[in-house]
Amino acid sequence: MTAAVVTGVGAVTPHGVGVEAYWRGTLAGRSAIRPLTRFDPESYPVRLAGEVPGFSAAEHVPSRIIPQTDHWTHLGLAAAAMALEDSGIDPGRMPEYEMAVVTASSSGGTEFGQHEMVNLWGRGPGFVGAYQSIAWFYAATTGQISIRHGMRGPCGVIATEQAGGLDAVAQSRRLLRDGTRMVVSGGTDASLCPYGLVAQISNRALSDRADPERAYLPFDAEACGYVPGEGGALLIVEDGAHARDRGAGRIYGEIAGYGATFDPPPGSDRPPTLRRAIETALGDAGIAPGEVDVVFADAMGLPEPDQAEADALTAVFGPRGVPVTAPKTLTGRLYAGGAALDLLAALLSIRDSVIPPTVRVGGPVADGLDLVLDGPRPARVRNALVVARGYGGFNAALVARASG
Amino acid sequence: MTSARSAAITGIGVVAPGGIGTKAFWEMLTAGRTATRAITLFDPSGFRSRIAAECDFDPAAWGLTPQEVRRMDRAAQLASVAADEAVADSGLVTGALRPDRVGVSLGSAVGCTMGLEEEYIVLSDGGRQWLVDHHYGVPQLYGYMVPSTLAVEVAWRVGAEGPVALISTGCTSGLDAVAHGAQLIREGTADVVIAGATDAPISPITSACFDAIKATSPNNDDPAHASRPFDRDRDGFVLGEGSAVFVLEEASAAHRRGAHVYAEVAGVAGRSNAHHMTGLKPDGREMAEAITVAMRQARLGPGDIDYINAHGSGTKQNDRHETAAFKRSLGQRAYEVPVSSVKSMVGHSLGAIGSIEVAASALAIEHDVVPPTANLCTPDPECDLDYVPRTARDHRTDVVLSVGSGFGGFQTAMLLARPGSTG
Fold first, then answer.
1. Nearest-CA distance from A74 to chain B in Å?
2. Same domain, yes or no, for B232 and B204?
3. A62 touches chain B (CB under 8 A)
4. Does residue B1 register a pLDDT over 50?
5. Residue ranges making up the domain that contains B284
6. Nearest CB to B407 within list A44, A133, A164
7. pTM for this entry
8. How would you class A150 by CB atoms within 10 Å of its CB: exposed for 0-12, middle for 13-18, buried for 19 or more?
9. How far apart, in whole angstroms, are the C-alpha atoms of residue B381 and residue B384?
């Protein structure tokens, strides 16, 4: 294998359907956080979310598949098809066993599952539908993408909550090293049904502020939790030599480095491990901290995790040593879709030589961070670092590098 | 001289229906005893299939603290006990390991589904409220929603600070998680990986969803004989639960510390049929491809395989699919090598079973005994291999092929080999 490169991108996000809708909204600093509409949130302490506006499954998912799958899988099928089209790959002309799908899944088909639990507990066991067995489980999106596009290679599903998007892409790079030519990778999530929201509320990390402008303020003195969102991104991760040979239209960048660590349990006297994940990723990419042009932060939006992330970044890069941004302040955290979407943002930063902003975060900001605030910052980006953390202690860091 | 890294199994822990602990598990398998019975974990009245293979499992008796019991879904409890046994069996002292070199790769198909359903019942007040009541939300509810919690619990237990992941590829999760752990060792990311799988799906919602597609056996009058892989009279799989967890170590390091090595992971490959979420083509083509690639990776041929631990779920389409896959990938050897399905005894525990079957495979190498296919009385005429009916067999076993097949179309093949038995 030469290098793992990204040759196609697809996204369905709170900024809208498609990559350009995402990027336009992100660069404009337009918040996509709004009152929930998928159900009436009046009775809940959390009423804001980053929902995907204007998504019609009928436009993106084969009609037969729509009732067999959850909204999360609809979003995944849509993003995968966009990414494939963008890459110019015709799966029918590729060796079937050399194409694979590896997605991150955070919570599976939550809304579909709640409907079937209503059928079971409200009506009886005979009322559970035939598709519960294939719609709810965490592998549904990978399976459906594999079937739709005839990809018969070594498929996978990784669940590490919000870190999953990076872990899935890293797993894809492993597959390329073992001879797979291309992998559809990344993740989506859609857990904005009542049961899904209530489960999220139980982790005590969600913001209960009613003002969409002030609800999710990572690194800010007023940080009070995050806003949940739905959607995500899928990428075509391809063997570099193969991409060149087939005359791929665009190479967004290379998956150059990766590191994953796990934090000690709460109450342990051992130090957290995010810094090591970052250093491992830089080492894997063969670069020094000074060669990183931007960091896409995990940005949990709670004082302690924000401070821990700021500490790790400062330890690696020095005080204000690197521009840091969190475009997820506009969308909320998308769980399995979140880190994949940050990786997309990193690749688009490389493409357009611009760092998207972290909006509405005022100050005083965590010491030592050069947060890109308010508006986009023009910058030549060769190496972008994406940082992600998953509930329970997962840390992942990934370096995306400009190609060539 | 190149020193390619490989992954060795140096510890095994099993919590399976019919017996907790590796010793009880192996005794049961080799006795050909079945653990399938009428469901006791919930009242199955009104369900089509009212039988399952359940673990008689008391978490407190196996060392879990009251807070752990409260916090953990049953799947996490099973995995914790299996992980503890595996570590003890390996002789490793986890506190003496470098935490950054220890990883966890745990598989599960349906995560914390029992906890999710139990809490749903309360929050929805018995299914009455679509707008479920958050005031009844327990603190661990979010941990139930994200299956990654299962890997978190195991990582906390063993003090892992290296790469940790939950692998969830449906019914191949148990093989895929061991494969992922072996990969982490091969590539040098970790020196020790606690790898395995767990599932505890014997709950109303899971039973109902398999009822809905008639995948599970309705043989409620004779549960002990309901799981009948490769038998003409089979009528679906029997749901199971359990966990198997392994200590995987870099083989040369394991050798240096004088560890007992059950088997090495010699080769593993996954393929997908891209055909149907639940349907299998009768030709076994993609599973055959996975087997072929796994053999190539292990530098082994059909003649090296001594035993096949089959997926053998006991559905007609599976049994014929994999029989075809063995013939397609192994040729004449498929007819010579013993093939058996432990699901006949411990049921089908979804994502966990792949690891439970790896345990059975490693123990077959350890003891030179292959477990039988229980309840196989009248072979399906289209399944014409040697399925080791009803009675375990003494059989020199250096190399085992273990396969899995699952919803989503995923097919995984793994080769386990006695150390020193491969080139």
1. 15
2. yes
3. no
4. no
5. 267-417
6. A133
7. 0.98
8. middle
9. 6
